[in-house]
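Box S2. Input/output pair 1.
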Amino acid sequence: MELTIVIAIVAAAAGVGAGFVVRAQTAKRREGNAEAQAEKILAEAKQKQQDLLLEAKEKSLKMIEEAKAEEKQRHEETKRAQERVEQRESTFDKKLLDLEEKHEKLETEKERLRGIKTRLEELTAESVKKLEEVAGLSKEDALNRLLAQIEQDEAEALETRVRKLQQSVDEDLDRKAKKMLSLVIERYASSHAVETTTSTVQLPSDEMKGRIIGKEGRNIRTLEHITGTEIIVDDTPEAVTVSSFSPIRRQVARRAIEMLMKDGRIQPARIEEAVQTAKKELAIEMKKAGEEALTELGIPVSSIDPKLVQILGRLKFRTSYGQNQLQHAMEVATIARMLAEELGADVHVCTKGGLFHDIGKAVDHDMQGSHPEIGYNILKKFGFPEEIAYQSIGHHVDRPKTLESIIVKAADAISGARPGARKNTFEQYIQRLEELEKTAAAFPEVEKAYAIQAGREIRVFVNPTQIDDLGAYQLAKNIAKKIESELQYPGEVKVTLIRETRIIEYAR
């Protein structure tokens, strides 16, 4: 048993030793293989390094050769350019020498001509002197005697001739002027219509009249209050009449009534909304009218400030002696342009100056001063040059300072003097109504004032916070006294003063 154990131990020891030997040999063999592989990789790396160095060297040599070739080419081009410059300098020097030579020849010829001229003058002086010695008179004396003798012998004939020439020139100029004006007027034979002070609004039925009047007349009072017009509801079938001397007020009232009829709701709140909408639509129409006027005259709309276009469009609803001012302005511009073409004046200045010559009338109700001064200031404010802005003043002075101003003034007279174009009594009537409104509005408590009933009544709206009922009675008397003392009018003027307190609150 013990022997068996010993043998087993010896065998185990021998196995362990053999295993160590085998493992050591295997490790040694692997180590040898790794060294061989490392040497192989190192050798391959060295070979690649040599190949890369050779390749880089070849590329460097190639780039050097290309750079040398390019440098050689640039050198040759520079040399050729230098040769061309030297050749041009040589040609220039040659031409310069030729010019200097020609200049010297010209100077020589000039000196020779001066000598000839001096000799001619000397010979002429000698000839005149000899003639004076022979005649016994100097040159001036002989000329004066000749002229005096001619004047004495032919004085009457000369005077008659001058008169005939002057008369002929005057007749010729008058004939040409009449012909030119007649041709211009014939070329621009536009229609005209006298503006009225009323507008008629057609109704779908007579039942609508009662709705416009409203309960106890509140609708019609509100409409008249807001628009400053008089709404006349009479026996005319299916129609009401809007009366006011201001075309803009009439347009606002007419449009508001038409909106209310389409909507069907007629009450004070809705009337206020309709009037505001009508005012906005009218502002758009004014701008459109101004743009159409510019387009028709060939003036680019983009060259005029939009605010000035809006002011120009206001002339569509402004009259002067019954003549529509926008139509009048377009007539003046067209006639002035035609006259400028005939006379050789500045067509651009005459066209623009003619169109804007009465621009002050578009805002003269809202600003102080005469419309020529207002128009001049407006045009200068919007950057117009002096020669165009002056047309606003020039067409109202006796002696305009430029030809274009004379042309615009003549065109203005032609447009206004056409038969049926203007109506003096209408303008006087409008002026009387405006003066009536201004007289009432001069009191600080007055908020608005509207002349109605052809100037037989003035409706005054006061601020309820600035005056009480007792003060309202006194104010009405004061307005009546001021109208009596300052204005002239036929019959009597009724002063209706309205003090209204409106309180609005919302339930939420």
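Box S3. Input/output pair 2.
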Amino acid sequence: MKTFILFASLFLGTTSFAGPGHGHAHGAPAVSQKELQSKGLYHIDRLIKAGKLDSSWKVSRFVSSEKKKFSGHTEWVVTFENAKSVKGKNLYLFFRMSGEFVAANFTGK
């Protein structure tokens, strides 16, 4: 009887450690290229409102989205073009594979 109780408590005890978020699918699902375009426009608007981009970027044109490796990590690089920009003509927005915004710059690096 002691053996049965011991095994039952061990079995029930180990299953209590498994909970939501402990599966084998790590991270959020990858975002599509179409979603990246709308996310890019959202962050351009946000950066304009924050004063980090000039207002001419409101009429920027989506150029591309591609995967690139940086220090062993793969990220999406979404490129927008603005011929009227004061600083740079191309803006590069960096996103994690799951779609979270990382950074933006005019160099693409």
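Caption for Box S3: The domain at 33-105 is CATH 3.10.450 (Nuclear Transport Factor 2; Chain: A,). The longest strand covers residues 61-70.
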